[in-house]
Design brief:
heterotrimer, A alpha+beta, B mainly alpha, C mainly alpha, A: alpha+beta, eight-stranded mixed β-sheet, three-stranded antiparallel β-sheet, B: mainly alpha, two-stranded antiparallel ribbon, 16 helices, 2 strands
């Protein structure tokens, strides 16, 4: 055939092939066996001892099972999962001095191939979790309460002598009881065991080349390379789903129902979690019925309203304080582009600018919290009363908070540095992570309000990429920085230590330290009486109000976007990536009943 | 000829070395904390920053780090890419076929349309066809690819619900990864056909339509222009006038004589165009969520995934040198004047 | 006398080509807008820089055109009209600076390579080969990652990948020109190397390069817009067309049932980029057609 005909035939052929794959327009495919979730984040590793990111943790939540779990939507009430009973003081399973936990374990749990779980697996799982201790991993969460050590290595990277024996002694077995010996009381321990250290199979681990559980070899598996472990991309757990495939090429995780599950099997046959970066694409797929739920945050809320066959579940509580403004008490002046002249001459700020409590209080009164929450976030959230969010023991709804009061702000500015701040003015640069619109707006509101008080006040707002931000933050160069905190486990200690303790993640670079806070935080975590504990956290947040080392701006309310045929989803703020991520065990798909047409009389 | 090839091949490692040194030079300005940001993504990990720096040797002097990397590469180990969550070599093997397939599927229509209409529009200079072709070319040249891509997505997927983004639908995904499916070439469309599954091939092709259309529209402009101007130049030459004077029919003049010679610059440009396509798919891959090498290399660069960026850069440099070599060889092959030199 | 009639001849030739005339008109229009920016979109009283788009509140949802905001607003209530007007200046700045810098570097290195030949030529050409082999977008991302996101850094990185082709082109032309008689004559008269290069060789070899450069302006603007779209360019709120489209990324598909609910955020800056690039391309085409003797 000649060229002309070929040219004409080609598009016809193309269309023919394509129409094989085309589905009828406007008709979404309902497949009750498969659930598709579209997310934004990338998983790091399927190893429960390694992973410390919400994307991986969501998968681990469905494949592995820890000792306890939270009941329904509660972040306070625990139910036993792998364990047979939740230990409390009342049932005697927690000793009077709070240092011994006796946890009876279920005898009917099986792994995904039907083989029974043994006590050796339970002990192995916990020891592996705390001893792998990879850099920037979750091991310290459990290592510290069980052994008293914050890490298995010292600051030079050498293994702390005797750490293995300590770990071994603290995790013991007595028949079908797991007995944990703590060096001192640690109240949040059961909640930690509800979110971390799920049970893995010792036999499977050894068979695939991981640690054999003995002292002789543990150092080899301490702080390993991520991809060398069989747990990195393969899984063998007790949970309602099994990992079929983790395809890093197409950003896809495929899970299948565990047919040998020790409880009733899940209703869904397949769960697919796919990573798609573009919101528009996720939205389109949701509308077409090719996805059952998607990641959609507050910024795009308007765009998902009124989508046919799509359900928005709003006002979901979170265990997150985001954003928080932190002050750096002692800045590092070397090569610091954010402090201007470095002096209180109206062209910069001195290195100890925020060390003056009057400056901090002035800033606290200068921010319009209500307006920010209503304008920028459509009112979806509350101003925290301290670092302990609502929903946890220790939250004090009556704690005094800072609110927008320009007169008070002026008063404190005039007091600061003996009047020099008001007289000379100041200038510095505030940064936010590039692309984070709520944080950008926060700084703009702050800038606007503060500059309105005195024409000599100058704040420059600029974005910064994460790498540069990290660099500047860790070297104490940023006068103020905005970060957030999300619960590792639902307990006030998890919020107060990193945010207020002088050894915490933020106060360190802030160069902030209040020994009263340190003492209280330390005492509160060991306090076993809930009523007494609560009072201590109330006192901590009172001190926080006095010291004002940071400004917690918002505890957000989130919303979930899913197709209306999704049933059975239960929200729990402690679930990783909630409310987008999911515990899929109770979830199923059923077409909603069509609205009844009125019958003619 | 062999000497020519040998000399070019010798040049290859020099270029690759030079490119990587240049890149490492640029990375010189990154502090250890900035490079550690690849591993510390969550505020909850902030307290471990110094340990991470120690673990990956990020505070060693740059030349030392480069030498360590180079030694690894010479032993055949390209390192591990944190953004791809797999070794760099595996990542390249995983992402490259997708980009190659997209490029191939776009390239063939570009060639066909570009040459056919470029020739035609030179022959019918200044007539309606010529004007239309030139308008199409100039708009393709002036339109940013992301604008076009987003519009296409909006219209075809958003409104008509055909031609979805991604590489394949979920059922084809399960099929392609099952043990029944045999990968012969790495080009999924071809493989699906070879496996006898026409529906799957159609599905994969349907996913290629929008990204390919975006690439085609933007790139065909270049080929249209070159073909047209080269053809015009040929048609103005003496031997064409002689052939016409001799009474040869126009179609013979065009097809048998002018076009062959006009295609010389086109042919040599094509290999460069192909490489340009390979590296130019970044935006298209991002918009259509296509799992190719363009998208990965940008993500790696953004997150300072040094092994990933080095690997992608090496690949790109390799392809570039090879393309140039092929282009020069084709030029020598097609243009007898060069050959005789 | 000679230049005047050359210009007149060019104008005559241009009139015969309506498309190229259109190109000149488009660029002329944008030039006027850029020049009149302070009048068309007055800078707010206490604004730190004219390029910072004023924000009207903090609501994330873009608004359609209204009496208050002629082109509507983008995400976070940046005034689109203001952004478009001042973005014209940014567009010209990017186009001219990037091509200008790339030209300067390319001319400098290319002329030295062509003039001196030998190992200088070899080294410089190998160096340009290495830079050419570098994947452009990756280099741009790395440069911005190292230096920080800003339009200036984007311009640096685009210029960094543009100059090698100019250097090569000029080198080829210099090689041809340097053997011509007037150059040999100048040498015989004892003129210094620099003088010969600057006064004789470069002016005679530069035309093809300028033509290529004018054709490149369009693609440079597109590359810069693409980098802004990827989030590497100017920070949000800076008046740049690419940045404006980048801000519309989450709103492109509108709301359910109304795909065009936020059409202004994509269409207006998109059309502007398109017309701007089109104008340069048409203009460049026209200039090339006129100057190229073969096309007459």
């Amino acid at each position: 055939m000649n060229q002309r005909t070929a040219c004409r035939l080609f598009p016809v052929l193309l269309l023919a092939l394509v129409s094989c794959a085309r589905k009828p327009v406007q008709q979404a495919v309902f497949d009750p066996s498969t659930y598709t979730e579209l997310t934004f984040n990338d998983s790091d590793s399927m190893d429960p001892a390694w992973s410390y990111d919400t994307a991986s943790d969501e998968v681990i939540l469905n494949i592995y099972e820890p000792l306890f779990m939270f009941k329904g939507s509660s972040t306070k009430e625990l139910v036993p999962l792998i364990a047979a009973k939740v230990p409390t003081r009342a049932n005697g399973l927690i000793s009077a001095d709070g240092k011994t936990y006796t946890i009876p374990i279920r005898r009917d749990v099986t792994f995904q191939d039907g083989t029974p779980m043994t006590m050796a697996d339970v002990r192995y799982s916990i020891l592996r979790f705390i001893l792998q201790d990879r850099d920037a991993g979750p091991s310290p969460l459990l290592l510290e309460p069980l052994t008293g050590y914050g890490g298995t290595r010292d600051s030079n990277g050498k293994i702390v002598p005797g750490i293995f024996k300590k770990a071994e002694k603290s995790v013991q077995i007595q028949g079908w009881d797991l007995v944990l010996h703590l060096p001192r009381p640690f109240s949040p321990l059961p909640t930690i065991l509800a979110s971390w250290a799920p049970i893995v199979s010792k036999e499977w681990a050894i068979k695939h080349g991981d640690w054999d559980g003995t002292e002789a070899t543990w150092k080899k598996y301490n702080n390993p390379q991520k991809q060398t472990s069989p747990f990195f991309e393969h899984a063998f757990g007790t949970g309602p789903f099994v990992l079929v495939r983790w395809d890093r090429n197409t950003h896809e995780i495929v899970m299948r129902r565990n047919e040998h599950y020790w409880r009733a099997p899940a209703k869904l046959k397949y769960v697919i979690i796919k990573g798609i970066d573009e919101f528009e694409t996720r939205k389109l797929m949701l509308e077409a019925g090719e996805a059952d739920s998607i990641y959609a945050d507050r910024e795009v809320w308007e765009q998902v309203q009124n989508t046919p066959h799509v359900q928005i579940i709003d006002d979901l509580p979170t265990l997150e304080v985001n954003p928080i403004v932190f002050f750096t008490f002692k800045l590092d002046g070397t090569g610091n582009p954010f402090i201007g002249s470095g002096k209180l001459d109206g062209q910069g700020i001195p290195l100890d600018f925020f060390n003056d409590i009057n400056v901090r209080k002035a800033f606290a009164y200068a921010f319009d919290y209500k307006d920010y929450i209503n304008e920028v976030l459509n009112g979806k959230g509350i101003q925290p009363t301290g670092v302990v969010p609502k929903g946890l023991l220790g939250y004090n709804p009556n704690q005094k908070i800072y609110s927008y009061d320009p007169q008070k702000a002026v008063y404190y500015f005039k007091k600061a540095f003996g009047g020099q701040v008001w007289k000379n003015g100041f200038k510095f640069t505030a940064v936010y992570n590039a692309g984070n619109i709520p944080r950008q707006s926060l700084l703009q509101v702050l800038k606007h309000n503060i500059e309105a008080l005195n024409p000599r006040f100058n704040i420059e707002v600029r974005p910064m990429d994460w790498p540069e931000f990290l660099d500047s933050y860790i070297s104490s160069k940023l006068p103020i920085f905005i970060l957030a905190w999300q619960a590792d486990y639902p307990d006030a200690y998890d919020f107060t230590f990193p945010l207020l303790d002088s050894q915490g993640a933020y106060p360190g670079p802030q160069h902030f330290a209040d020994p009263r806070l340190d003492k209280l935080i330390d005492a509160a975590v060991a306090q076993t009486d809930p009523a007494k504990r609560e009072k201590m956290y109330w006192r901590i947040q009172e001190l926080e109000y006095e010291d004002v080392p940071n400004l917690p701006v918002l505890q957000p309310l989130d919303y979930r976007t899913q197709r209306d045929w999704v049933q059975g989803w239960v929200n729990n703020p402690i679930f990783p990536d909630s409310p987008y991520g999911c515990y899929y065990y109770p979830v199923y798909k059923k077409l909603p009943a069509p609205p009844r047409k009125p019958k003619h009389a | 000829m062999l000497k020519f090839i040998a000399r070019r091949l010798l040049f290859l490692p020099i270029v690759m070395l030079g490119v990587t040194m240049l890149l490492f030079g640029a990375l010189q300005f990154l502090s250890p904390a900035m490079r550690a940001s690849l591993y510390v993504k969550d505020p909850r990990q902030l307290s471990a920053l110094n340990e991470v720096i120690l673990k990956y040797g990020l505070n060693k002097p740059m030349p030392v780090q480069y030498w360590i990397w180079l030694k690894q590469v010479l032993h055949g180990n390209l390192g591990y890419s944190e953004t791809a969550k797999m070794p760099v070599a595996v990542a390249i093997r995983a992402f490259f076929p997708a980009t190659f397939e997209l490029t191939l599927v776009s390239f063939i229509p570009i060639l066909l349309i570009g040459i056919y209409f470029g020739t035609l529009s030179a022959v019918k200079k200044d007539k309606l066809l010529d004007q239309t072709t030139r308008i199409v070319a100039i708009t393709g040249y002036s339109l940013p690819s992301f604008v076009l891509g987003l519009f296409l997505l909006m219209i075809f997927y958003g409104h008509f619900q055909i031609f979805p983004p991604g590489r394949y639908s979920l059922n084809v995904d399960l099929l392609v990864h099952s043990s029944r499916f045999h990968h012969y070439t790495g080009l999924l469309t071809l493989d699906a056909l070879l496996n006898g599954d026409f529906a799957a091939a159609g599905d994969i092709l349907a996913h290629l339509v929008l990204p390919a259309t975006t690439l085609i529209y933007i790139s065909v402009a270049l080929l249209l222009r070159i073909t047209r101007s080269s053809m015009l130049e040929e048609l103005g030459k003496d031997y064409v006038r002689t052939a016409r004077a001799k009474g040869l029919p126009e179609s013979v003049v065009v097809k048998k004589h002018a076009r062959k010679n006009a295609l010389i610059p086109v042919v040599t440009l094509s290999s460069l165009l192909f490489i340009g396509l390979l590296s130019g798919v970044v935006i298209t891959e991002t918009i259509f969520d296509f799992p190719g090498i363009g998208r990965w290399s940008v993500i790696a660069a953004q997150q300072l995934d040094v092994p990933g960026v080095m690997g992608a850069t090496l690949l790109s440099a390799f392809l570039f040198v090879v393309a140039n070599m092929i282009s020069d060889m084709l030029y020598a092959f097609v243009d007898p004047r060069i050959r005789l030199n | 006398m000679e230049t005047k009639s050359k210009a007149a001849a060019m104008w005559k030739a241009l009139k015969k080509r309506p498309l190229s005339l259109l190109g000149f008109c488009i660029i002329g229009f944008f030039l006027l807008v850029a020049a009149a920016a302070p009048i068309l979109a007055p800078v707010p009283a206490n604004s730190r820089s004219a390029y910072l788009i004023p924000e009207d509140g903090y609501n994330p949802e873009p608004k359609l055109p209204s009496a208050k905001h002629w082109f509507g607003t983008t995400e976070n209530q940046y005034d689109l009209y203001y952004g478009m007007v001042w973005g014209t200046r940014t567009a010209f700045k990017v186009a001219v600076l990037v091509v200008g810098v790339a030209l300067l570097v390319g001319i400098f290195l290319g002329s030295i390579a062509g003039f001196y030949g030998g190992w200088i030529d070899e080294t410089l050409m190998r160096f340009t080969d290495i830079v050419l082999a570098f994947p452009g977008l990756v280099l741009a991302v790395v440069i911005v990652a190292v230096l920080g996101p800003s339009l200036d850094h984007v311009m640096v990185s685009v210029a960094a990948v543009q100059w090698p082709s100019y250097a090569r082109l000029l080198r080829g032309d210099v090689l041809a020109v340097k053997e011509r008689e007037f150059v040999l004559a100048a040498r015989a008269l004892g003129a210094s190397d620099a003088r010969i290069l600057v006064r004789h060789i470069i002016p005679n070899s530069i035309y093809p390069l300028l033509v290529v450069a004018s054709l490149d302006v369009g693609s440079v603007v597109i590359t810069a817009a693409a980098l802004s779209f990827l989030g590497l360019g100017a920070p949000a709120g800076y008046a740049s067309w690419g940045q404006l489209i980048s801000m519309s990324r989450d709103w492109i598909l509108g709301s359910p049932g109304n795909a065009f609910a936020y059409w202004n955020t994509v269409f207006i800056p998109g059309i502007a980029i398109f017309l701007f690039v089109l104008g340069w391309n048409l203009m460049g085409d026209g200039v090339r057609d006129i100057l190229d003797p073969r096309q007459r």
